[in-house]
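In the laboratory, one determines a bound structure by crystallizing the protein with its ligand and collecting diffraction data. In a computational setting the workflow is compressed into a single prediction: the sequence and the ligand go in, and a structural description comes out. We illustrate the idea with 2BA.
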Amino acid sequence: MKLVISIVHREDADGLLKALTDAGHKATLVSTTGGFLREGNATVFVGTERENLEEVLELIKDNCHTRTRYVSPLVPVTEPSEFYIPEPVELEVGGATVFVVDVERHEKF
Ligand code: 2BA
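The predicted complex, in structure-token form:
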């Protein structure tokens, strides 16, 4: 068995959950926060048999969209802040960041 941990944009989470459950997969949604932007994102956990893994990954790929974000960098400590005008930096935010891990044991009590 595999556990698919997928960090996705909040706006994609509902569509992804629907696509997964419509296809007969079980999923859990957790509200999370990105360490870099400190913005809310969503993490979806799917436990699945090995033979269904590629279908789960395809559903994630099809339902999560890349977005461009502009963020203002923090004032560098070496710069006097009154003279520093930060230029927004363009970031490409996933899509989905996906980890697939082996499940040693799965029980349901
Ligand atoms: P955040 O950590 O808030 O990162 C949001 C976006 O900021 C990232 O998009 C990336 O484009 C950029 N970014 C992150 N760290 C950076 C850095 N040190 N320098 C420059 N730019 C940086 P994604 O790569 O698509 O990641 C989206 C979210 O997925 C992340 O939100 C984080 O919550 C999660 N994530 C990504 N890679 C991860 C990893 N290796 N381990 C755990 N969580 C991860």
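The chain has a mean pLDDT of 91. Keep in mind that any predicted model is a hypothesis to be tested, not a measurement.
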